[in-house]
Structures are given as C-alpha cells and as structure tokens.
C-alpha cells in the first residue's frame, strides 16, 4: 500500500467587491500530482517543520493537536508547513514580531529581492522556516490560522496525502503573488465563481477543493468564514468513487456526493 504523507493546505481569504474571495493556483500540467488542477497553496511536510526552536505566537502545538486530531509534534509540523507553503507558493507570510516585542503584529510587506532570495531558499530546502524567522527576528503566527478540513487520499491512488486544510485571512499590506514554479495561474475568485468554472469544464479540481469551496460559499465574508471553523477534532474524509450512467462521483463518508466534471480539451 502506498505510504501516506502528511501535508498542509491553506485557504487564503480576502473580502472582495463581490464578497468572500479565495486565492487559487492552477498547477502546471507536468506536475506528478494533480497536474492541471486548480488547488490552494500547500504541500507535504518538511521534517524541519517540526523544529522546536521556531518562535511562536498564538495557540501552542498542544492546542493544535486537539483541533487537528494528532499528536503534538505532528501538529507543530502541520502548522509550520501551512505557514511555509503559503509563503513559498503565494508569497504571503503569516508571521510577526515575537510576543512582548515592539515590532508589528504581522509583517506588512514581504516583497523585494532579499525576501525573494529567502523564499527561493525555502523552496530548495537550503533554509528552514525556523531559520528564516530567526534571521528576521519574527515569530510564526499560529493565531492567524483556523482548522478547516481533513482529507486523506484513497488507497488506490499512487500518491497519497493526509492533509489538514487551514483558513487564513490575507494579512494587511501583503499581496498574494504568482510566484510558484508549480503553478501557471494564480487567481482570486469567489467560491461560487470558481465552482461555476469547474462545472463548465474549464477549471478542473479534485474533490477536496470542490467540497471546501462549497463550504466557503456559505460565508459572506472573511470574518464569518474564520469564525465558522468546524468543531475539534476535525473528522477525516476519505472518499470512495462510483461510476454511474450520469458520470463519475466521489462519495464522502457522510453520504455527500460530488460529481467529477471532465475538463474541456485545451
């Protein structure tokens, strides 16, 4: 059986003219996992995400362990991976001054050549998140994240992930950017708009993205989405699949059915 890799994904949110918007990336077609699919920033845990010397503001890993349904070390890894991947893939850093210092609660700007060099070093694993934060005198802001969902790739897949989904507001002063070499498009879309494109066959997505966008569509703004986190611990979702005359469906443990749309030829 294929090993299951722990991973973290972040639903990065902002309030737009049409309501709640979410930052979405279209993965390049050559990617070994979910190529051509629209998804959120995220990826697998780096072993160094468990570094215990990372400066930390907000709920501690023990509290996150209760929310995420895992042990304390895994919780630390998942929260750090969420922050790291959001910076690597969207150029947004959920960090600020350590507790008791005079610096900004959240770093207001992470653009510029020096920041970009450090982002690239994270991508190549020359630098860990703990090392980046220490060099900048910053602390990880776990209080900016909310637990949102927990999905596990089914056993028949060749690449499997045990993924916690987090929600976070875009920090004031920062801009999400198309910086990831793993994506060929980055967009801010309303959940309803993204789902409409998916159903039209122009924006293919995997079931977790479809389902979490449908959940987000119920919220009018960022504040309500962050306040609407599910109760702890998150219940893991591992879909099964059914081929029926009207198409292929992902079936969730609670009976919810998600119709999988075949993308239009490019």
From TrEMBL:
Residues 3-211 form the Nudix hydrolase domain. SUPFAM superfamilies: Nudix. Keywords: Hydrolase, Magnesium, Manganese, Metal-binding. CDD domains: NUDIX_AcylCoAdiphos_Nudt19 (cd18870). Its cofactor is Mg(2+); Mn(2+). One of its GO terms (molecular function) is hydrolase activity. The keyword tRNA processing does not apply. This is NUDIX hydrolase. It comes from Geodermatophilus maliterrae. The lineage of its organism: Bacteria, Bacillati, Actinomycetota, Actinomycetes, Geodermatophilales.
